[in-house]
Amino acid sequence: MTKRILYIDYAKCIAILLVVSGHIIQCFSAKGSKDPLFEFIYSFHMSLFFFLSGYVALMTRERSFSKGIFPYLFRKAETLLVPFLVWSLLVNRFIDILPPPATYNVIELFQRPDLGVWFLFSLFLIQVACIPLLRWQKWYVIIPNIAALAACGYFLESFAYLNYMHWIPFVTGMAIAKFEKQILTPTPATIALLIFIVFEVVHPHPVATSISLGIALLYVCTQIKTDNIISRQTLSIGQNTMGIYLIHFFFVWAKGYRVIDMSGLHATLTLSIMMVISFFISMASVYLSKILQFFPIVGYLLLGKRIK
């Protein structure tokens, strides 16, 4: 088992809590997707996950490619494509926890990954497309690889989920991991936080906001040194983001129930309340995912192959 990098787990915890909070607001707020707080979270939350995924990909690249490229591809398919297909085609078809109603087939799913748990499919595409970047890291590889990513995302409709809002944060996360000692320091982190604030105030953009927030978040998380029950539960959430991403829909998705009017609450207070609720929903999702892992086949189909 590889030793965990704890500050990354702290950052992933905060990122997944924001995802869950956004879905709670989207589901239960009287304004739904038009709620200002949802729009704020939506402006960066998934791109932030791509940024963190790129950071982790570079930090773990030696282990990832230790057995070669084809075992790497197979492992990524087991980790990402298996749960993508099972949740999108089977779980949603019988339980209907994701919008819209599950009346699509496999071909339609690959044409429209947003019909299911699209993030897994998009992350798989990007991790496959970035193999040259991860494997060799030479300038004569980097430039054609980035050009190919841009071309696929721009010209090919079937690669819409390989668009710049996904792969630019991922590649930037890789670059930050390469130069972490220089970038994850107080001055760059402060500048990154200011950039995040400016973009959120002037013109929110997923690429700029996710990268700037990601840098600031990673630096803050490197400063966490506590060891108590809250920090241990936080780490547990950060180490199980896949299960939380998939399972939390059971707890938060209730189509048609716009029952909470949060317009009278200050945005900071509302976000704090949502983060606390998300914390408990995430912990419930973690415990449920651990129960599923007692049944190897079920756990494999629903949660993919666990990377230890």
Describe the overall structure.
- Helix content is 73%, strand content 0%.
- The chain has 18 helices and no strands.
- The chain has helices at 6-28, 36-42, 45-59, 61-64, 69-95, 106-111, 118-129, 131-135, 139-155, 164-178, 180-183, 186-202, 206-222, 229-238, 241-247, 249-252, 267-292, 296-303.
- The N and C termini lie close together (5 Å).
- The mean pLDDT is 84.
Task: Give the topology.
Blueprint lengths: L5 H23 L7 H7 L2 H15 L1 H4 L4 H27 L10 H6 L6 H12 L1 H5 L3 H17 L8 H15 L1 H4 L2 H17 L3 H17 L6 H10 L2 H7 L1 H4 L14 H26 L3 H8 L5
Quick structural gist:
The chain is mainly α and 308 residues long.
Q: Count of helical segments?
A: 18
- Regions with pLDDT < 50 over 5+ consecutive residues? none
| Helix residue percentage | over 70%
Using only C-alpha atoms, the radius of gyration works out to: 19 Å
Which structural category do the helix and sheet elements fall into? mainly alpha
> What's the count of strands?
0
What is the chain-wise order of helices and strands? HHHHHHHHHHHHHHHHHH
Beta strand %: under 5%
Mean pLDDT: 84
Number of domains: 1
Net shape: globular
Q: What is the terminal-to-terminal distance?
A: 5 Å
User: Largest sheet, if any?
Assistant: none
